[in-house]
Every structure is written in structure tokens, then in C-alpha cells.
From TrEMBL:
GO molecular function, one term: L-amino-acid oxidase activity
Protein name from the UniProt record: FAD-dependent oxidoreductase
Membrane-spanning residues: none
Gene Ontology BP term (one): amino acid catabolic process
Pfam families in the cross-refs: Amino_oxidase
Residue span, Amine oxidase domain: 43-496
InterPro entries tied to this protein: Amino_oxidase, FAD/NAD-bd_sf, Flavin_monoamine_oxidase
Lineage: superkingdom: Bacteria
């Protein structure tokens, strides 16, 4: 029945197909795997080496930093962070406490999930939206829980729409039956009263309680007072809700157990650490008629050269644009085209998990119109002694404002602002902190990029320049996601392998 299309079936995965290169592909063609130099051990570079390695390509990765992963970076106690101006922080986090400074959430449909399965990276739920977390706007007298904001917005919208429908205001759009169906939907959606009550929204248990229901006669005290429609609209809380409707942000989301860097670590282990040259800064890329030569400065400051048949440049475009090469003026202009976005995070380590103990918040995100933008509660380690809250995760101008400060001032500003939501314990129970300003991270210098257009430069770099291919999230339609880097790597691997199979 299924084969005939007569039985219903669930929607299939919408992921792009990918066939990894295999050694057997060479047996019929008489051709052999080539030597490939990969620039950058970020997620795109690692995935490229991993996939090509399956067919026996001889890959070498040059990585400027002393770790793999690029922006996939988990900071733990003892880790040292140095910014472009040389200022340094050393994380003092206790055992088990960490911050994912870059990527921190995976959507189920992303290819990243498949790599976690293949690489044996354990996953756990990452709580991206939590009814128990807050929305805080400076115009509001106090933060409001997401559940309360939703109850009020959905409630009043349902009341208005039910009334309008019932009064015939939508008769041109709705049949009599549809009107009844819409009213039935709104009754549950907004938890509003019946027709006789004028479909009134009067609050209720969805808003939460000031005293929870309990045993015996304890019915609970519903949270009040219910704000007026006008107050709810002027608070602007409803404008926050669409965040979780995004294809890339909807629950459930996931994270690797123990830190996001489990992904690059697993890749590096499969590739073989000996193929990855850390502390190697690319200084020149030369495309020859028969291959490519890359010059780099090694960890001891010596200039080295490596020759290969092909190259995959998986570095940020703005760093490549500063690297001498002979790939031509058009490539140079294209590499300089995307606009770099900044982003920042601060990890606040607390001696007590007050968000769980005092506020019943287990994971999730508080959204604000403060320049800290969002506060993230950890989706792991519930009930442990300590924990880490992300005190800001912001972009653009807000991130620039924090980047301009020394770490101690970033901490002071983040804590001062966060106290408006969580009170004095937000300052008093803090034990250590670390902040990352992505535009100040050596060899990365940005969080992600944006293209003014997907014509021209973007298209040019999505095809090879001589023997040099380009890969990264910046060459995908999933910028600022590891899945973008992984899909880009797969595309380049496929094209590079096809070329190898079809040319002598
Ligand atoms: N992937 C990043 C994040 O989830 C950046 C991003 C934010 C991308 C919002 C798209 C939408 O935070």
C-alpha cells in the first residue's frame, strides 16, 4: 500500500543527500586519492578531512589556534583566553562547570545530529524555551514568566477575536461553521469565557500561582492581578513569542553531554591528531598549474611550506581576505564582501544554583530588552552544587558595547543589569566569570558573517579557484550554525571527489 502511495506515511527527512567518498570509488577509474591541505580546524575543516579520509585522501589540516573546533569552543576551568590586544583571562570554573562560548544548541533536523550519532557524541536536551523563565522589558515594573505573558497575550487576543467573530465582523471571510470552529479553537487557545461572558479573559491557572496548589484544602492562590489588555499590549511581551516558532529555534533542541566541543574532539580523534598541525598560521596560498602550495608560520615562528594537489580553505572569509594569495582580484573582492557580525557571551559561575532553588528554573532562556539581551540557565547538572549562567548572549551593537570593556567591567555591567531580574543574589553568589567577545578572538575575529546578496561573490566562492575550494557556514544558507559548516564541507567533498575521479 505504501509503495503504491495508498497508505499514509510520515514526512520524510528533508535533508540533502550525501554519499561519502569510498576507497572503492577509485578501483574502477584507476585514479587515486589525492593529497589535500585544509586551512582551518573549525567544524567545516574537520568535516572535510573526516569525509575525505574515508576514501583514503591524504589530508593535512593547518590550524592557527592551539585547539581544534574554531568557534565551537567550550571553556572550562584552567582555560586561557587572550584577546587581540593581548588582554588575558584564565577561567577559574570548578570541575564540571563549563560554557559553550560559541554554538550551544542543535535543532533535530540539522545534519549535526547525524554527525553526533556517527561520531558517538552523546546528546541531551537543550532547553531553548521554558515557560518558567522570564521576559523583562525596562518599561515593566517586574519581570514576567513566559507562561504568564503567554496566558495574557493569548487570552486577550482570543477574547477580541472571539467577540469580533461572534459579532459578525469576519463574516466575509468565515462561514457560519467556520465561525463556530474558530471560536472553539480560541476557547482553548486563550482559555477565555463562554459567549454569555462575552468571551472574557480573566486570567486563571495558566498564569501561574503566587501560592502553589497543595494538599488538603490548599487550592493555591492564582497569580494576580491580571493586567489590562492595554497594559499587556504596551509591555510588548507578545513580540518575544515568535522566537521559538523559527525552524532553527523550536524545541526540542539538543546539546552534546559535557560540552559542545565533544564534536570537534570526536572529529579530530577520527581524523588522527597527527594530521592536524596546531599553532600554524597560514601566510600565503599559491595556486600552481599542478597543485597548490601553502606557506605558514608554525608554533615556533618558523616559516613552513606544504604542497598538495588540492586545498580547502575553511577559514573565515575576512581572515582569508587578509592572507596573501594568487587567486585573483575577483576572489579577493569576493572574500572582502561579507559583513562580519559580532557576538559576545559571559559565563557567570555561581556557588549555589539559585535559579533552581529559589526560582524553579531548570534550563531555558530569559529574554530582555537590556543590552545583555538574554540570560541562559544551564540544561545540565540540575541539582548540582554549582552552576554557570550565561549572563549575556548578544549580537551587533550590544556585543560591541561589551567588547569595548575590560573583562572586569563586562562582569560588573552584566551583573548590574541581571540584578534587575534576579536581585542581589545575582551579585552576591557569583564566584567567577569569563567573557568572550568574538570579534576580538585571534584568527576568528567575528561571530559570523552576512552577505549583502547571494549573487556574485557568494556564488564565486561556492566554486573552486583553481585548486582551492572554500568551505564554511558562510557559504551556506545556515550561517551561524554548525550544520551550515557541515553541509558546506559535504558539498566541497562531493565536488572535490568528483573532480578527482574524473581527472588524471
Ligand atoms: N545559531 C546561533 C544561535 O542559535 C545564532 C543564530 C541566532 C542563528 C538566531 C539564527 C537565529 O544563537
Amino acid at each position: 500500500m505504501g509503495a503504491l502511495g495508498l497508505a499514509p506515511s510520515a514526512e520524510a527527512s528533508a535533508k540533502a543527500a550525501f554519499e561519502p567518498p569510498e576507497p572503492s570509488h577509485f578501483s574502477l577509474t584507476g585514479r587515486s586519492a589525492k593529497k589535500v591541505v585544509i586551512l582551518g580546524a573549525g567544524v567545516a575543516g574537520l568535516a572535510t578531512a573526516y569525509e575525505l579520509g574515508k576514501a583514503g585522501y591524504d589530508c593535512t589540516i593547518l590550524e592557527a589556534l592551539d585547539r581544534v573546533g574554531g568557534r565551537n569552543w567550550t571553556i572550562r576551568g584552567g582555560d586561557r583566553l587572550t584577546e587581540l590586544d593581548g588582554s588575558t583571562q584564565v577561567a577559574r570554573f570548578r570541575e564540571g562547570v563549563y560554557m559553550n562560548a560559541g554554538p550551544a544548541r542543535l535543532a533535530q533536523w540539522m545534519v549535526t545530529m547525524d554527525y553526533c550519532r556517527e561520531l558517538g557524541v552523546d546528546l541531551e536536551v537543550f532547553t531553548n524555551s521554558n515557560a518558567q523563565a522570564y521576559i523583562y522589558h525596562q518599561s515593566m515594573p517586574a519581570p514576567v514568566r513566559w507562561r504568564t505573558a503567554k496566558a495574557d497575550v493569548y487570552g486577550y487576543v482570543s477574547e477580541l477575536l472571539s467577540r469580533a467573530t461572534d459579532a459578525g465582523a469576519l463574516d466575509a471571510a468565515l462561514t457560519t461553521q467556520d465561525k463556530e470552529r474558530l471560536i472553539a479553537f480560541l476557547s482553548g487557545f486563550g482559555s477565555v469565557g463562554n459567549r454569555a461572558s462575552g468571551f472574557a479573559y480573566t486570567g486563571g491557572s495558566r498564569r501561574g500561582y503566587s501560592v502553589d496548589p497543595g494538599a488538603g484544602e490548599q487550592t493555591g492562590t492564582p497569580l494576580g492581578p491580571v493586567p489590562s489588555l492595554s497594559e499587556v499590549l504596551s509591555s510588548g511581551v507578545g513580540q518575544r513569542f515568535s522566537f521559538e516558532f523559527g525552524y532553527d529555534q523550536a524545541m526540542l533542541m539538543f546539546q552534546p553531554v559535557g560540552g559542545m566541543d565533544a564534536i570537534p574532539r570526536a572529529f579530530a580523534a577520527k581524523i588522527g591528531r597527527q594530521r592536524i598541525r596546531l599553532g600554524s598560521v597560514v601566510t600565503k596560498i599559491t595556486d600552481w598549474a599542478d597543485g597548490v602550495e601553502v606557506e605558514y608560520r608554525d608554533g615556533r615562528g618558523r616559516t613552513q611550506k606544504i604542497r598538495a594537489d588540492l586545498c580547502v580553505a575553511a577559514m573565515p572569509p575576512h581572515i582569508l581576505a587578509r592572507t596573501p594569495h594568487n587567486l585573483g582580484a575577483e576572489v579577493q573582492a569576493a572574500l572582502s564582501t561579507p559583513n562580519v557580525t559580532n557576538s559576545g557571551k559571559i559565563g557567570l559561575e555561581y556557588r549555589r544554583r539559585w535559579w533552581e532553588i529559589d526560582e524553579d528554573i531548570y534550563g531555558g532562556i530569559t529574554s530582555t530588552d537590556l543590552d545583555l539581551a538574554t540570560i541562559w540557565y544551564p540544561s545540565h547538572g540540575y541539582g548540582a552544587a554549582r552552576g554557570l549562567v550565561v549572563g549575556y548572549y548578544n549580537f551587533g551593537a550590544q556585543a560591541d558595547a561589551y567588547a569595548a570593556l575590560k573583562h572586569a567591567d563586562r562582569e560588573r555591567r552584566a551583573v548590574e543589569q541581571g540584578m534587575r531580574i534576579h536581585g542581589a543574589k545575582y551579585r552576591d553568589e557569583l564566584v567567577s566569570s569569563v567573557s568572550v567577545a568574538w570579534k576580538l578572538q585571534p584568527h576568528i575575529e567575528g561571530a559570523w558573517v552576512g552577505w549583502p546578496s547571494r549573487q556574485g561573490a557568494y556564488q564565486l566562492l561556492n566554486s573552486p579557484a583553481g585548486h582551492v575550494y572554500f568551505a564554511g557556514d558562510w557559504l551556506s544558507h545556515m550561517i551561524a550554525w554548525q550544520s551550515g559548516a557541515l553541509e558546506s564541507a559535504r558539498k566541497v567533498v562531493t565536488e572535490l571527489h568528483q573532480r578527482t575521479l574524473s581527472t588524471a
